[in-house]
Amino acid sequence: MNTRTVSRFAVATLVAAVMAACATVPDIDASQFPQAPAQFKEQAAYKDQGKWTVVNPSTTPARTDWWKAFDDPVLDELIERANRNNASIQASAARLAQARALARITDADRYPQLGVGAGVGRVGGVFEGTNGPARSFGTVGANLGYELDLFGKLSRGSEAARLDARAQASLLVSTQLLVQADVAQAYLALRALDDERTIVRETIAAYRGTLDLTERRYRAGDVAELDVARARTEVAATEADLLAIERRRTEVEHILAVLVGEVASNFDVSSGAWKTALPRIPAGVPSTVLARRPDVAAAQDRMLAAQQRAGVARAAWFPDVSLTANAGYASSELSDVFKWSARAWGIGALLSLPVFDGGRRDAGVKNADAILDENAAKYREQVLVAFRDVEDQLSALRLLSEQAEAQDRAVSSAARATALSDARYRNGFVSQLDLLDSQRSELRNRRQALQVRSAQYQATVGLVRALGGGWEVNT
């Protein structure tokens, strides 16, 4: 290129650089998002627990072994199996690999593109200014192309793809946390059913003892046949309850099998005593607990990616500028292709800008803005859900603790009433109906106490999930 051409190209480049200032990304109105409360509503009920506050979501959600706090080796093993084999985790990991690959593909457009090629053809008629017989024409060379990112279209597209990959990494952590929490809740439900089954079996044994006593007294003529029928009814009804518990336990065990990625037919969790520890919320919970919540981090990154793509859409109004270069050999005689005299090269600059596109670029900007608005709304919703989830589980734990105390008193009173009724029935001071009522009341209260205890475990796991993997910062 001569001096005048170079000068014109420099001027054009300067003008384009000035125009690039117009190709900006749209702002995100932070006022539309929920403001972090000074404290959670439930803080007043946890006066000895320190302050609960929230901060902005973390870009690197923490991975914690939160389930270790339950101190249950069986639970530990089940979660480790789920981490290795769960299909949802594997699918999420594959989506992360796809997102990272797409980010690399998008980023590759920012770098020079180099290619090599060779060709041969048969040319006849007028060729190189002369009319002659058909001859072969060969070329060998390399082509270099580079698109100048004057308006940030390529860099913003690359940044959007990077944010998508980071969001998918957060979603992988979120999926892992969800699966781990589901495993923990299913396992704890299984242990609760084991304990409930034990209670019902003990009650059946007590009912059968009452039935034996009633049958002996019936044969002795002390009671009517109606009393025997009532005792048999209680035994049969409670045996039916036991079978229902067995059915529910089998279903929960099958749910666990799917969560750990195994065939239900080959999966078994042996019955055992419920010795799982119930973690307590520590005092002085740090303000960073909600920052680790991966679904909030993913929603934030998706919103930021949409913001970058809105900038890409605006850059479509500006020209594309590319630099090209090629060098190689070309000859009408194949035998001369690689001779120095057959060398050829060229450089150039290409500028393209659609003048009329039927409104395509304007529609593209509006579409990108609408996608940004959608993702901003989803992010706002995710933050609100995070606040709600924590409040739900904190209030559940507080109320369940109070309920457990009241239920324990009810169990003690019911057990004492059953013991007194049994002694008085054996001595003929009360009717069989009084004894059966006491036994039914004790069974009902013992099962309710167990259900409250189970709900405490479920709410604790729910709080772990709501906080993004526990309340400890360094676990």
TrEMBL record:
Keywords: Coiled coil, Lipoprotein, Membrane, Palmitate, Signal, Transmembrane, Transmembrane beta strand. InterPro entries: MdtP/NodT-like (IPR010131), OMP_efflux (IPR003423). Residues 1-23 form the signal peptide. GO terms for molecular function: efflux transmembrane transporter activity. It is found in: Cell membrane. The keyword Transcription does not apply. It holds the Pfam family OEP. It is a lipid-anchor. GO terms for cellular component: plasma membrane. Residues 433-460 form a coiled coil. Gene3D superfamilies: Outer membrane efflux proteins (OEP). Belongs to the outer membrane factor (OMF) (TC 1.B.17) family. This is Outer membrane protein OprM. It comes from Usitatibacter rugosus.
